[in-house]
Amino acid sequence: MVGYDPGAQGVALSPEEAALAGSAAGMVTRALISPLDVIKIRFQLQIECKGKYWGLFQATRCIYAEEGLSAFWKGHIPAQLLSICYGAVQFASFEFLTEVVHKSTTYDSQTAGVHFICGGLAACSATVVCQPLDTLRTRFAAQGEPKVYVNLRHAVSTMWRSEGTLTFFRGLSPTLVAVFPYAGLQFFFYNVFKKLLAPPPKTGESGGSIRSLVCGSGAGMISKTITYPFDLFKKRLQVGGFEAARAQFGQVRSYRGLSECMVKIAKEEGVRGFFKGLSPSLVKAALSTGFTFFWYEFFLNAMRNLKERRRHTMAIPKT
Q1: Does residue 197 contact residue 215 with C-beta atoms inside 8 Å?
Q2: What three-state secondary structure class fits 277?
Q3: 8 Å CB contact between 311 and 11
Q4: The whole model's pTM is what?
Q5: C-alpha–C-alpha distance, residues 212 and 110, integer Å
Q6: Omega of the bond prior to 146 within 30 degrees of 0, cis?
Q7: What tens digit of pLDDT does each residue of 273-314 get?
Q8: Which of 220, 213, 229 is CA-nearest to residue 188?
């Protein structure tokens, strides 16, 4: 179970070890779900109701035919940096916050409500720290051919010179508005599902089980559906000033802020416009959240076992 657990057996892990497990989980998960992320972003940035992409498999074939297999990992370096950084900050913050709640209040750190609040706050902390990497990841995934940015260093220098420092934090407002309930609901439903599907006490199930994958997938799909429009607003705002590279994919729009973005999408694309790219996003959310919790518990368990072995080895008297 994620979060501070006063009744957990075995050695306790430090926040640094939780950060390490979170970053490792983020790295492995990102490598697996990157293609779905690229497809999702292409749908989110498409203005037309009947645009270049109209289905998950059609978009996959189109991107592969026009840009090759490597296109599904466009922006993978900033995306990996984002995942590693985000996973480390989020899970370290979550473990710390649940421990503080348990020791400073009367609430049980393993209740779903506490996980909702702590999960949301932890995600907000990670979002502020990692937002520049998220913007870079979106720019790389959104560009077609010929490429506007050759590599990560070129992208950073070009954006900084032409658009200023604040461009790296485009879309931060809708991101923070969305990430608190999204991450909070992820931890909330993961907690609920884990308890509903809890195995018999004597089975001694270890971390990183299939149950973690299933519970995480369910939690990811529910939380993504509820908060999806804000993710779309964020993506639209992040590519502001990047219209030239988007022209080959269809119509482009620029928005002065979150409120204008919402109004324009509602007028031009209707309510369905708020959910463009939902199908690949749900597939991605199921795999991403499921794998994240699966690998996080897997790496936590591995580190816990390693520490127990070391402690056991040191406890054996020398002959």
Answers
A1: yes
A2: coil
A3: yes
A4: 0.74
A5: 16
A6: yes
A7: 888 878 878 988 999 999 999 999 999 988 888 888 887 777
A8: 220
